[in-house]
Amino acid sequence: MPRLHMHVTDAADAPLRAALHELRGTLEIPHHFPPTAQAEAESAARAPRIPAADGAVTTEHTLEDATDLPLFTIDPPGSLDLDQALFLSRRPGGGYRVHYAIADVASFVTPGGALDAEAHHRVTTLYFPDERVPLHPSVLSEGAASLLPDRDRPAVLWQLDLDAEGALTSTSVRRALVRSRAKLDYAGVQRVLDDETAEEPLALLREIGLLREGQEVARGAISLHVPEQEIVEHDGRYTLAYRAPLPAYAWNAQISLLTGMAAADLMLASGTGILRTLPSAPDGSVARLRLTARALGIDWPHHTSYSALIRTLDPRRADHAAFLQDCTALLRGAGYTVFDGSAPPPSEALHAAVAAPYAHATAPLRRLVDRYTSELCLAASAGEEPPAWVRSALPALPREMETGTQRANQVERACVELVEAALLRDRVGETFEALVVDIQDKDPTHGTVHLYDPAVIGPVETAPEGPALPLGHHIQVRLAEAEPGRAPVRFTPA
């Protein structure tokens, strides 16, 4: 499920930052790594080592040299935890070749060690509006393991060949030493693509990205471009603005999605792996979204599928952005499915939003499971058995990832509540135009409203024994509470 991107600009005042700091304490989010884990990370940063099948590591760093590939990274400005680097080219006989380097975290983390144990405890990098809490110590995630430019790095190097229509024709994965040539950002990439000054390896990002988007449409997949929410302080009040992702972001994401699908195919063919799975959305959820679309004035013809509608929306528009936020509800229920030697493949192998088997494979610096996916795919590509340390960890991974995802969701919800309370804290008692987007089955006097301005979602309740809330209808609501860190926003019908 796409995370709700939210950050606080430098203009935001100290009280909100103080409340966010307090929130991290309340949620018991770790500030530092245990000394033994930190020491392991610092030692590994000085001398990364290739992991062996039994979980041990070699004493010499002997890797295939692929530093001649002029890889580049594309990330938000200021990012230092660079998981992926790519190089795109045309194949002589037609079609395309994608080289995709993924940070080789297993060359820095010894299975069963203190650092490994801490990674299994943290599971994911956690994102707060003002900072992030990393999965791995920064000496690795922003240093020795990150694919920073002009530095030799161990990597899991994918080679993905595509035909002229962008369909995958062959996959190979190997360990290699790589060297990124440039650290690019989305705005800069979009600019040179738009003015057609990009050199071919970068210009192919749009060409391949568009072809892969066409493949996505043909599969009936769902691609949500959820806008980022930006909270700024102006004249003593907070305001909330949406920032739509650039096309270059979506094209780059298609390369990651392609790799995740290729990883799933490799693991399914080998008989051992871990997939990211998602069941189809229940009809009731889609029906509720139709009510929301109607109330927001979004035209959704009955003959148009949900996936087709999504592609017509413009996340720069407030009404479309609000609808896209609500659409993330259909992606809930995702999980991880492990299989080991099972034949035929697991029956629940599909990810409904991807409309194909899919695996998390491209963000090992920020997500625990991706380290294991890399090792499984390396073994599958080489026609070898998976490492024993990987196979022994598989049964527990789905539960670990579920726990970590729940923690990330808890952080997200708490941050949203806190920021929205900060946004509205000086407007208690005011009346707002809103849309009822949900009601409780057991008590239809309690539900959820989406304000039109600002784009806040919050609980609403009528008086006891009052009338049921009108799902999908416009109502006026009065802000009853909003105190950052103390009371989340709460509305009553006006």
Based on the model shown, name its key terms.
about 35% helix; single chain; about 500 residues; alpha+beta
Total helices: the number is 13
**Gyration radius, to the nearest Å?**
24 Å
How would you name the oligomeric state of the polypeptide chains in this document? single chain
Mean of all residue-level pLDDT scores: 87
Q: What is the makeup of the main sheet?
A: 6 strands, mixed
Total count of strands: 20
In one word, what is the shape?
globular
Determine the strand fraction and express it as a percent band: 15-25%
The low-confidence runs, each spanning 5 or more residues with pLDDT under 50, are: none
Termini separation comes to 34 Å
Your description of this structure?
Strands 2, 3, 4, 5, 8 and 9 form a six-stranded mixed beta sheet that branches. The chain has a five-stranded antiparallel beta sheet with strand order 18-17-16-19-20. The longest helix is centred in the last third of the chain and has 28 residues, at 397-424. The protein is of the alpha+beta class. The model has no long low-confidence stretch (mean pLDDT 87). It starts with 5 loop residues before the first strand and ends with a strand. Helix 1 packs antiparallel against helix 13 (397-424) and helix 2 packs across helix 3. The protein has helices spanning 14-26, 35-46, 114-122, 138-144, 186-194, 200-219, 247-270, 283-295, 306-310, 318-327, 368-382, 388-393, 397-424, and strands at residues 6-8, 64-65, 71-74, 84-90, 96-103, 126-127, 132-133, 152-162, 168-184, 228-234, 237-243, 272-277, 335-340, 350-351, 356-357, 431-439, 446-451, 457-461, 474-483, 487-493.
